[in-house]
Design goal:
The complex is a heterodimer of chains A (254) and B (67). Chain A has one domain: Aldolase class I (TIM Barrel, Alpha-Beta Barrel), CATH 3.20.20. The longest helix of chain A is centred in the last third of the chain and has 21 residues. Chain A is α/β, with parallel strands linked by helices and 254 residues long. In chain A, helix 3 packs across helix 4. In chain A, helix 4 links the parallel strand 6 and strand 7. In chain A, 39% of the residues lie in helices and 16% in strands. Chain B is mainly beta and 67 residues long. Chain B has a single domain, classed as Roll (Ubiquitin-like (UB roll)), CATH 3.10.20. The N and C termini of chain B lie far apart (43 Å). Chain B is 10% helix and 39% strand. The radius of gyration of chain B is 12 Å and the shape is globular. The chains are: A alpha/beta (254), B mainly beta (67). Chains A and B meet through strand 4 and helix 3 of A and strand 3 and strand 5 of B. Chain B: It comes from Shewanella morhuae. Chain B: This is Sulfur carrier protein ThiS. Chain B: It holds the Pfam family ThiS.
Amino acid sequence: MLKIADMEFESRLFTGTGKFSSSQVMLEAITASKSQLVTVAMKRIDLKTGLDDLLTPLRQAGVRLLPNTSGARNAKEAVFAAELAREMLGTSWIKLEIHPDPKYLMPDAIETLEAAKTLCDKGFIVMPYVHADPVLCRRLEEVGCAAVMPLASPIGSNQGLVTESFLKIIIEQARVPVVIDAGIGAPSQAARAMELGADAVLVNTAIASSASPIVMAECFKEAVQCGRRAFEAGLGRVQTGAVHTSPLTGFLNT
Amino acid sequence: MILIHINNVAQSLTQPTSLAELILAQNIALDSIALVLNTQVVPRNRWQTILCQHEDKLELFSAVAGG
């Protein structure tokens, strides 16, 4: 079973709540995914349009909420966002994300490390979204992060495991759970991430933007389970040449 | 008359009003938001006792869908 900080999770598929066509579809997809940890963002309320009640159905669904700091452009804003989230949701868990660049949403490593240190010191359970940088992941672990969340490819891009070689190094070195986040676009890619030994994956766009989000959520659930089982079973070694699986002698000639 | 700003919208109060009363007057449930008063996050358990002051700047935040 996956353990992050003091919480155990049966499901290794975390999901986001963004980009769904309706709250009802989102809720049904999350239910179908069997995800137990679900991300939410925070926003200043527009008093003219009122409040869209996202929390009540999610709380009723029994999932644990993981607020993110999306929109923060530096460490100071991210710490502020985390404190807001703790007050709003009553959780000290935070997905730390600082991406000032609006085009590629690349996480800012320097600000992220600084914010992570501050938040860990303040008692938050910090899960930072970062580039697939093995050195940075070690540094984040050293300042007390409960997990690391390296990206597979740019957020929402569905490009899959572009960073695979580096994800392998991160997984090999990490002493905290590794959650592959961002860019996973197909169940086969989620399965691959799990086969590599990732502890979990976070998927949002690939489910939400599917023509059938609920079916896709089920597909991801099964892919993650399958990939994890394959990892635990142990993949065979990759070889350059052919190695026969059938006897090559004794059939035609005695 | 007490003049305050909620999310950059000016509002005048004719009588002493707590933060909690102010939020409820906006038809917003207390358990669904976070409140920032003059750049400081205010814990929920103090919303009943803090009264709005002239020129206060309040910011209300809610959870929205995100990845």
